[in-house]
Design goal:
This is Cation/H+ exchanger transmembrane domain-containing protein. With 205 residues, the chain is mainly α. The chain has 2 domains: 1-78; 94-205, no CATH class. It has 8 helices and no strands. The protein has helices at residues 4-10, 17-27, 33-42, 46-70, 80-114, 121-141, 146-159, 167-195. It is globular and about 60 Å long.
């Protein structure tokens, strides 16, 4: 709304209400990457760490579901029926993705628990990462939020699946995930920093 009304009154930003709401849903999620990194370095109490991390995860989940729901408003003109449809879409995407991720997390955890890998770490790790990514693909295929589903799947697997791995595979998985996380954070900040000077604001004549 902060973007829509000034843009509507002064013709600054040619964005529709639906596009503004989508943009708002994207920037509403606060990313506590720097805060969590500081917490890790200073050894802050784990309860505070998980409170901040959990709050950010919940914000991300709601933001993703809202973004998918607001997509309806960008396709046609706003109406009361669309508002109802948006609410239904939010409910289906949010709770459906959570349920799907929960089910997939339980299934993968049970598979890792009962399948015997005969101390073959390569197959065990391949199985772990492959089936960790499957929920994302399936969730997107059925119209849910893949990011939200894989988030819930990861939370479930973090509590149950990792204890079914062999000690060597467990340490390897933790190290690989830390490396991937660090690379992703570096890429995001580098991309934003490098792309900022290239942004040009176009105003209508």
């Amino acid at each position: 709304l902060t973007i829509f009304f000034p843009g509507f009154l002064y013709n600054l930003y040619p964005l529709s209400l639906g596009e503004c709401l989508q943009f708002g849903s994207l920037i509403s999620a606060v990313d506590p990457v720097a805060t969590i990194s500081i917490f890790k370095n200073f050894g802050v109490n784990k309860n505070i760490f998980f409170l901040v991390f959990g709050e950010s995860v919940l914000n991300d989940a709601v933001s993703i579901a809202l973004n998918h729901s607001f997509a309806v408003l960008t396709q046609t003109e706003f109406s009361g029926g669309q508002l109802i449809q948006m609410g239904i879409n939010f409910f289906i995407i949010f709770f459906g993705s959570i349920a799907f991720g929960l089910i997939m997390g339980i299934i993968v955890s049970l598979m890792l628990k009962y399948i015997q890998f005969d101390n073959d770490q390569f197959i065990e790790l391949s199985f772990f990462f492959f089936f960790s990514y499957i929920p994302y693909i399936l969730s997107e295929a059925i119209g849910l939020s893949g990011i939200l589903s894989i988030l819930i799947t990861g939370m479930v697997m973090g509590h149950y699946a990792k204890y079914s791995l062999s000690p060597i595979s467990r340490v390897t998985v933790e190290n690989i995930l830390q490396v991937i996380s660090s690379i992703a954070e570096i890429f995001i900040f580098a991309y934003l920093g490098l792309s900022f000077p290239l942004i040009s604001v176009k105003t209508p004549p």
